[in-house]
Input
Amino acid sequence: MPDPPKKIESLVASLEELRLHVGRKDLSIGDRSVNAQLFFSLANACLRNHAVLLYGGMGANKTTLINLLGSSFLGLGLGEVENLMVTGHPEQTEEKMVGFLDPRQWTRPGAGASEVLWTPWARSRWKLINEINRFPSGKQNLFLEILQKRKISYAGQVLEPGDTCYFATMNPEFSATYPLDEALLDRISACVPAVQPDFLAGLTLSEREREVRELAGELPRFTPEEFEALPTSVPKVELTSQVELAILSLLRDFTLCERAPGYDKTQLSGSKPSKGLCPGCHYFNNPEILCWQVDEGLSDRVRQDLRDFTRSMAFLLHSDGDLKVLKAVAPYVIWHRVTPIRSALESPPYYGARKLALISGLVEKSINRTLNERAEMNLVFSRAVDGEMAMEEALRELSAYDDPIARLDFIPSLEQMHCR
Amino acid sequence: MSLKSFMEDAYRGKTRAKRLDTHRGDMIFGLEDLADRVGTKPDRADVEALVPADENLLFQLMTAKPGKKYRMLWGHLSSFAAERSTAPLRLPAEDFAGLEMGCGSIILEEAADHVGERMSGGRILVRGAAGDYLGQEMSGGGIIAGGCKDYAFRNMRGGFGVVRGSSGNYTGVGNSGGRIVVLGNCGERAGWLMRGGSMLIAKDAGDYLGLLMSSGRITVKGRAGKRAGWRRKGGSIRAESFGPEAADGVLGLD
Output
């Protein structure tokens, strides 16, 4: 009887035993601690059509880990999986990555419509884009299109590889790297720092005497049925109402802005909190409010990513889809999509370098506030929407709350309903 | 499921509601704003009454360059930040870092003047050299610095100070307590008017060591300059050797 969760456990244990991945347990979920780099990659392997970006310096086991996981999940040799990835450099072309037209077909007798010879990467359902920030900006757009449409088009032909697991790796900014486009970053579901092995991990790795390629053959292999069963198992994990509510409020906390058109920070272009939008605003400098502390709002994709990765992580840990999982997962889903204001990021204890920690603090603040302080106003709003409370009374009560969600979201919504 | 049922399920009967406190106290927008309220040479208590409770806001206030005008305000803020921080706080080299600090730790790569002034507890580590008035009027805690300029540990009443390199002139002037250790050389008039405490200089000391001192102990492992212990009223001075005109009762190291 196939049991994918058990096989994943066995894969995690094998990676450690064979000294193939011994990263620090830097992701705490309730009373469990796991390695974020490994578990986000596994969570992505249990989903489809999401992208996880591993971010870190050279030799942090980013590419090898994804290839090892690919080898296990696809049941292929490590060498075969390595042939499936594309690596970024300025001379990389669409023809090399996606496919090309073989000119010999036009000289064959009775040649019909031209056919594209798709590359193994294009056909694969496990796509690794290695060193994505070494692709110049124009070439990064290719991935934007693939992640958006889940189709690959070339020379008028379209390839639909089916539901795919997308992974990408990138180094910090070097002389040969290019900045990642914000739209592409928004299509990356989670970004995970890949750190160098610590002292003990280094000691453990030094005990590895055989080649990675050789050891990779000893990892558990998934059958195609087991691999296909994973994305159908994850949705069975139910998210609690608290999680759903916390996700909705989190998005609004980041996105609402009193001074933006439609109170929507994603509408801003030139003017931003970091460029002097906020001084004089009622909420400016209030540490309980998130809006003035980050430049960007969050798109609706973030909502779906938060839900999917909370489910997938809960599935991996055999836990409920509850708040402790959301609190652990959410910073990794959000931090690469937003830019905190400089004064907050450059202050101790962040020193301009610990953006993930800063975003974790903001996420925690929003979730705690929703659960501990917003109950009354949320209930007033919900009773008004359900028609159990007079609109005028609800508007009067909500106007007493100084919360951005009450003022900029609930009240305008009720006023619209009232006008109808 | 109706929206109300969804909310009730999420809150499970808990309807605790703390309203957003947007008007709590007076928001301080910067050092200039703080100076408008308490002046540029305020008491610690006056600043403490207005300092933001939120760590992020406090650090934001401290990111502004204080210049000469707001340096005491910045110094007080640096102490509050260090006292609240569970980990050692790394700060830029500004005057008055750790002013009247009561606990916590500060790490400075280089230091300006008046570092650790009037501190009563905690630790300050200066990896490089400090400026003038290091640890002036300190009554507790400890400072370790790579070196320092003049007037270090002046009027010190307690705590300890370690200078890993050399110190300038007038080290430990008017001390009534505390311990000072200088691992390098020490400039002129160290321990002038000293009334208590101890001072150990691992290498040479300048002229007029222990001038007019009335109590306390000074030990020099190297050579003391001329007129060591001149007009001394009490206390002890010991040194490996002395320059000319050393006072009577100044002892050699045995």
